[in-house]
Amino acid sequence: MGPLRASRLILQQLKVATTTGAESSVFQPEAILSKHGSKLKPPLVCRIITEQNDSEVAYTFFDWARHQRGYKHNGSVYGALIHSLCRNKEFDLVEKVLMDLKKEKFSIRVPTFTFILKTMGQEGKILETLKLFYRMAEFQCEPTLSTYRCILSMLIKEGVLDDVVTICQEMLDANVMPDNITLGMLTNALCKGGRIDDALRLAESVPRSIDAMTLDGLVRGLCKVEKPYDALRLVEKSKAFNVHPDARMYEKLIHGLCKLGKVDDSMSLLKKMSGEALVPRIIACNIMLDQLCKLARVDEACQLFERLPTEPDAASFNIIVNGLCKKRRVEEAQKLMIDMANRGFPPTLETYTGILKGLIKLGRAEEACHLLLTMKGNGLLLDSIFLNDIVEAMCKKGRMDVAQRLLVKGKEIGVPPNKYTYAVVFGGFCRERRFLEAVDFVKNDVLMSGCLLDIAEWSPLFKGLCEEGRFNEMLKLYDTLLEQELVLNKPTFNVIVKGLSKAGRILDVKRVMSEMQKISVSPDKLTFEALIDCNCEDTSGRAELFKPLIGSGIVLSTEKYTALLDNLLKSGEAEFATTVLHEMRRVGCLPNTSTYNALIGGLCKLDKLSEARQFLQSMEEDGCAAESATYTMLLHKYWKVGQHDEADLLYKEMQKNGICPDAATYNVLLEGFSQYKRVEEVFRLLDEMRVRGCSPSDSAVSSLHKNISFGDFKRVKKSLKELFGIVYKPESLETKETVQEVKKFGLPFIDEHPIVQKGKRGHKK
Which of 21, 411, 458, 675 is buried deepest, with most CB atoms within 10 A? Predict the structure, then answer.
């Protein structure tokens, strides 16, 4: 009986013993071996283990055999068992066998170890595979190129390129040089992963392993990342190892150089190809032609076109046509188009488009339209884009009359204008500030065509009409658009409101605001700011315009709120002004001194002195410091209505709060004291004014002359001359009045009094 049959009989006995358990007979492989005349030897054990599909059976037989007298496993048996376990993915048992092998001081063959790494990697055990790879020295095993390739291919598959680069370097340090297959695999993976520098460094370290396929991949990758000169250097190095570039590789280099604008170097490569009897495809030549035209080197492009090493195609002609047209050499381009047709290349849409753009640049709109007619006759499908290009060019040049004629011409040749065409012409009129013509164009062309412009495009026209004061025309256009049920957007409404407000056309403003509300266009911050700046003498009914502001969440600046309060008080709407003040606080915009001055001044004008006095107290609560102008407004009103006791109390409060009177305050006090003939107070004030550098106003001096006694005024005249150099001459001061403003806030102080004539002023030392 042969050894193969004997091994099968032993296996059958083994299977019976391991599958039937207690019911089976005792496994006696010695009897089987004796019966068949086979002796237990390592080759027979290897064969039996190798043939098993069940790794548990294989391991059981292996363990039985090792305990037989006169028998000892060798490295081959361990290798056979490892292969069997790996095939069945029993990696825990593999680790146990490896430790037994190490204990028995058997060496393991590199192919066997590599097989372990390969099967573990195929199961996705990346980390475990790497750990075992770095333990090879424990088992007196050194990795070979096959081992490294196994590990590297696993890492490449997982996309772990950092580890790929690291192990590549370890491989080189171990003096294991990659062959051309391994190098190609590595450089291809690194290039695809964006690690082109690592790929180049690896290739240059083992130039002998570079083959044509690897070189081609590296050249493609380097040119893709705009490093054609590195690719050229590698190509030259590879020639020393009998790896020469082919025509396709040269084309990649030419393309890479042209991407960098290095067209001269690419032309040198073209000459080198000719010297090496290599003919480039027309696509490479077209790349150079295109680059020369982009660099405005059209003459050189034409020369290259005439001596191309291969036949030109339609793209070659189109490149030159476009290049000539960009340089305004349209006649030459048209001749080339004829030559193109004669050589069997019918002009394409791109050819016509290039010439069309050239004619547009030259302003030859009629010829451009004729070319459109030719294109249509040649069966090319046209749309409004071509007409739009011509019209837009004319509009940019300000030739609006030509642009309008082109609209008619387009309809005649079957290329009707579309919405964009009308928008271009409309925008051209607005840019040229020909707003009335734009209005006519809208009424006679745009609306008649049924192509309504986008709502965002109306703002420039309304703004221009407002700037030129064409409010009637603007409102007529506005009404026309409403009739067409065109809903304007918020920015356009803001332009209209702002223009009408500046012009003081408050009734028109109210109408527009009402129509905004009807079509649910809510006013925004810009709308209210325009209303605040309304330059209108008729201030009645302003509260109605600003009611939508309350609770809207819109936050104006403190300055705008202040101006709004001032306007409301001027129109007598004090109650709504208070509402606005509460809204101002609610949205977190605290009033400042200017705001309170506007409130107090407005309330004084309305004779609401108690409310004004309350706001003076509120200033302190809000942390706003009152100033002299604030007190002056109240003082003036108290004197005017005869509440001199309140005026005295207010003046004392002013002094107590450390607020120094200014010239306006002093003059109000002078008029008040003179009215109640408080002469001693007058002299005290004059001395104080002298110290503070303030002079009495004409109105104050006239009030003194009118109200105090002749004797007292005589003394006042003397003080005026001594302290301020003022010489009073009443005879020339009839029927004049003075208007004194308290800074920029409050009420005008208007009184009809003789104005004091001032002589040469000077102060006594």
Answer: 458
